[in-house]
Design the sequence.
């Protein structure tokens, strides 16, 4: 049975306690496309995390500030999330897109010689107009269970040359959208999520995708509202370099 929280902030607050108290120490060899050595190889991890957020649009900035602490960093992350949502909802398979410029100090290290990233979410969501197909699926059948927006591509992401830090591969697997009781619900599935670096961003961006889909469906379903966001992660973890400064509570 998944835990149910009202807001993203509530989910982050309680999950932080779970990770700190129940998380196990795991050694890993890579982060993104970087090899890890020494103490940096250790993460604190929860396996099979699952929860539901009833009101994912409420207290999003409060949730961001809970993790990123300072007003300056919080504002940067808020702007980053807004631009990332715009990129993912642009209708174009953008790579590199625009959001990375807001956090250039972090993302520039992952740019390849081509000036692009090994993947971008906007690129994955709009290749072959996939996102538009998902929206049309919902328009054509309000009870559909087939509106699945895929990020993971096994033809690309299971390349042995990419695995084990050979290249960056997506942490998000897919988003499933369901219309039930006049609400658009989203089930968000991740293989891996860095709790102190990316989790709150991923949840806020997912809520933004829900808003976009609801707006795209307004002509078909004028009374449709944003519903619940269900989150599932195979591995939710925190890296050693963040753990040493962990003072969330």
Sequence:
């Amino acid at each position: 049975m998944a835990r149910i929280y009202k807001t993203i902030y509530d989910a982050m607050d309680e999950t932080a306690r779970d990770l700190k108290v129940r998380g196990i120490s795991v050694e890993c060899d890579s982060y993104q496309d970087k090899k890890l050595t020494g103490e940096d190889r250790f993460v604190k991890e929860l396996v099979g995390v699952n929860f539901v957020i009833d009101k994912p649009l409420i207290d999003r900035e409060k949730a961001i500030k809970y993790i990123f602490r300072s007003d300056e960093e919080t504002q940067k992350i808020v702007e980053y999330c807004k631009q990332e949502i715009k990129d993912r909802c642009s209708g174009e398979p953008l790579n590199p897109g625009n959001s990375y410029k807001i956090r250039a100090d972090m993302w520039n290290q992952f740019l390849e010689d081509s000036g692009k990233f090994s993947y971008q979410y906007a690129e994955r969501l709009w290749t072959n107009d996939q996102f538009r197909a998902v929206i049309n699926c919902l328009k054509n059948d309000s009870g559909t269970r087939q509106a699945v927006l895929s990020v993971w591509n096994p033809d690309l992401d299971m390349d042995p040359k990419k695995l084990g830090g050979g290249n960056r591969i997506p942490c998000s697997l897919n988003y499933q959208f369901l219309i039930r009781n006049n609400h658009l619900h989203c089930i968000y599935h991740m293989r891996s999520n860095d709790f102190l670096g990316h989790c709150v961003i991923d949840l806020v961006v997912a809520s933004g995708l829900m808003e976009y889909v609801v707006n795209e469906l307004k002509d078909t379903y004028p009374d449709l509202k944003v519903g619940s966001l269900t989150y599932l992660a195979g591995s939710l973890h925190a890296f050693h370099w963040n753990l040493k400064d962990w003072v969330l509570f």
Summary: Residues 195-216 form the longest helix (22 residues). Residues 3-241 form a domain with the Thymidylate Synthase; Chain A fold (CATH 3.30.572.10). The mean pLDDT is 95. The first strand starts at residue 3 and ends at 5.
